[in-house]
Amino acid sequence: MQEFRVKIGKMTCVNCSNAIERACKKIDGVEDASVSYINSSGIFLIQKDEKRKEILEKIKKLGFEILEDEQSLEEYKIKKHIELRKNLLLSIVLSVVVMYFEMFNQSFFSQNMQMLLSFFGIFYCGRDFFSHAFLGFKNKNLDMNTLIALGTLSAFIYSCLEYFKVFNGGYLYFSGAMMIISFVLLGKYLENKIKLKAENYQKTLEKIDTKKARILLENDEVEEISSAFVKDGDIILVKEGESIVVDGVILSGSAEVDMSFLNGEFFPILKKENDEVQAGGIVLNGMLKIKASKKAMDSTLEQIKNLVFYAGNIKTPLETLTDKISKYFVASIIALALFVFVFWFFKENLNTAFLRACAVLLISCPCALGLATPIALTIASSNAARNFILLKNPAALEKLSQIKLAYFDKTGTLTKEELDIIKHNLSQEDFEKLCEIETLSSHPIAKSLSKNIKSKLKGEVNIISGEGITYKENDDMYLIGSRYFLDSKGVDTKQCDQFFNQFKNLGSIKAYFAKNSYCLGGVLLDSSLKENAKELIVGLKKQGIKSIILSGDNQESVEKIAKELNVDGFYAQLKPEEKLQIIKNSKESLFVGDGLNDAAGLSLASVSMSFSKANELAKKTGDFILINENLENILYSFSLSRKIRKIIKLNLFWAFIYNTLCIPIAAGFIPFLTLSPHFAALAMCFSSITVVLNSLRLRKI
Description:
By secondary structure, the chain is of the alpha+beta class. It folds into 5 domains: 2-67, Alpha-Beta Plaits, CATH 3.30.70.100; 75-204 and 319-378 and 642-700, no CATH class; 212-310, Calcium-transporting ATPase, cytoplasmic transduction domain A (Distorted Sandwich); 389-410 and 532-629, HAD superfamily/HAD-like (Rossmann fold), CATH 3.40.50; 416-529, Calcium-transporting ATPase, cytoplasmic domain N (3-Layer(aba) Sandwich), CATH 3.40.1110.10. Helix content is 51%, strand content 19%. The chain has 25 helices and 26 strands. Strands 14-26-25-24-15-22-23 form a 7-stranded mixed sheet, sandwiched between helices. A 6-stranded antiparallel sheet has the order 6-5-7-13-8-11, with no helix packed on it. The chain has a 6-stranded antiparallel sheet with strand order 16-21-20-19-18-17.
């Protein structure tokens, strides 16, 4: 089984991506398909390489375009946006002109201009709707484009028949047909514009990370290759600051390795000869010679990526129901229009039957229904962007209002990544000396002590991985590290221990400092809460939302933060798959995380949030990207979500009521009430305008 990824152009709505999914899943040898309208891409699980060509041909037959890479996708989106804007402006101008002729000029010249201008406007400005509808019909795939095309075409054809005196109804509906195209193009343009703005924010946050591996050859030469080509048995060299690109066993060397990608632990783990290491770990100091135990593409890192893929393919019941409704909605409307036509043909005449069927198609044209959700989401997306929130999946904003359970990672999410200095019993001179020496190390403790310090030390330093630092200057020997490290060097730490015991409830991380076998004192450190973390939890409680911490950190550390925040529960020492299982068992949940080990959970949760400084995979997976570290933006997102849900409900109610009341009238089934195609088109337009104006209220939040 293998993955096949492809970039897809010309998708105009979610129905397009659903249509591609359904069609490709029917291909023999395609196990699964996941197509994203938001990302203009598709991922297919196939059995053989030969299926790639078949998938591409099927996508093209449906009327969509295959794009070569990210660059061509970007160029395509910009090109289509400019084209969409031109079509919209031209369509509006033509609609106004045609409407003017229809309302204020009844001459033969006016009728000619209406027909010519509307013909050009409908089949040029709305050409994409007709091409998609034709190819969809050809491949037995009816979508919103089908109704738009049929409604517009029926109004135009009737008007042409009226023009050539086949009917004697007295009205031309060229302007109604043009207005359908204009309003649908308006919705598409607004949606596309906000989507492009969101992607511009995303480009400033994401960078492509191309990793290389240095392979030790048999002749002891070193060759640099792409990490994707590392195979089982290769010997790789990893220096300080570099990432380990493959799972393997250390042949020689020792180093502290940041494994937070896997276990969420803030502190590095000492790795030495014969220890196993996983791809994704970062060597903080030292150098390792590692023998690969598997291919790079089979590493733990890639397995986590697979978790993200499979989690992303799990659809909620609501999404599944929506897909089913959209699949049969268009066919039902067409069937209803045919029934109305036959009914009135036998009851009265061809002219009445055509008018009634045409009116049903026009009033049922899903302009208002189609605009109800996307236009509200796009305006809300713009609002969120102005408040430093990037919506990668705007539909998640609607789901957020239904959330009653929020999961949080600890380190980097609720707490700061840097440690805070709690207390120390060193003299000012000794403390400054300690901070200067710590500038020579890349350990998290050293970074917290040495930030904003410029060192001019010229002595000899020796960093002992997992234990501490020795520094020799002139005839003085300085030691920094744990109590066990100083004890091993014969330093008495009892007095310093008494100092730490006085503040044991304030912090759990201790750094001892000695000079010439005499303990000068120590520094007590601990991780601290991010600003507004407490306000976030209190705000969620007021809304009836439970907060639970999911962390790979040790029990003591997680419990301390959980009590400080007064959350509803916590889990400690979790592996990525354990986090995933907890989230999977929750029906409606929000997950906020920032690490690679959080990526699968971010993908599976009903709604997910990450930060702009987060791991690359976490950013790509999250529905919301918080551009700054202000946790109050999470509360703001809930507020925006509730507002948008109310507006979408009102939009859908308005559109539904319009269809419910007007379809029977358009069909002529309500005694003493009739709705001609002319008024059906106006009613549809008025419905769309109402939805747009209602959605614009989101700009004021």
